[in-house]
Amino acid sequence: MTSEGMSGREALTLQQVVHLRTEDGKFQAVGKLAEIGGEFDFLSIEMEQDDREYVNAPAQGTEILCAAQGDNCVYRFPARFRSSSALPEKKWYLDFPEEVLREQMRRFVRIPVPSDMGLKVKLPNGIGSLRRAKEMTICNISGSGICFASDQEAPVGSKISVCIDDLPGYGELRTTATVRRCTQIRFLNHYVYHIGAHMEEHISEKQQDKLVRALFQLQQQYLKKGVGVV
């Protein structure tokens, strides 16, 4: 990951998704940049919160650590909290940042997945076909790939079959994936394999867009639980 400083006027645009938190982690939320006002004097963020969370806003002057999603990057900056709108509107008003830190990121962010989310995988059997589906544990998933733990290895370059039971807002995901890495890891008195597989070439653009939205919902759930910060 590389980073560089740049002007907030160049980096920030309307409808950007913005992750917000305080340094102590007491406040964590997600919103969209709704307005840049006052000759670049303030930001208006349309918050994705329920009413109870929204009315419990930070005190005026609280420093908010912000991360705005860009094209293959994230823009990080601190901004002082000014005020919030009255319900039913849900908007936070923050100082406009003159400078932001641009961090180049991988195309798709990896999201950790709850261990109880069902995953079934068919691995190669060594004679040109696939074994029967077996339940395995997901480590993480992105819009283009998946990593999971297996008690059996899979050759790099081989094709596998993946089925995830219930992604939020997506439902069941079934697809082929290509193994890109297979790492042996010692666990207690035996070995397991962390297998990373690439799905992008096997799913449609529409499926991928839907998957990215599902993963964004998972991110929001983690933020509400205080798990994983921006």
List keywords for this structure.
230 residues, Pnp Oxidase, Chain A, Thrombin, subunit H, six-stranded antiparallel β-barrel
Structure description:
With 230 residues, the chain is mostly beta strands. It has 2 domains: 3-105, Roll (Pnp Oxidase, Chain A), CATH 2.30.110; 111-221, predicted glycosyltransferase like domains (Thrombin, subunit H). It has 3 helices and 15 strands. Strand 6 (73-84) and strand 7 (91-95) form a beta hairpin. The longest helix has 21 residues, at 205-225. The two termini are 15 Å apart.
Q: What structural category characterises the helix and strand content?
A: mainly beta
Distance between the termini: 15 Å
Question: Residue ranges: pLDDT <50 for 5 or more in a row?
Answer: 226-230
Helix amount: 10-25%
Mean pLDDT, all residues: 86
Q: Please work out how many helical segments DSSP would assign.
A: 3
Indicate the CATH topology of the largest domain. Thrombin, subunit H
The run of helices and strands is EHEEEHEEEEEEEEEEEH
Could you say which overall geometry the principal axes of the C-alpha atoms support?
A: elongated
- Counted up, domains total 2
| Strand proportion | over 45%
Question: How many beta-strand elements?
Answer: 15
- CATH class label of the largest domain: Mainly Beta
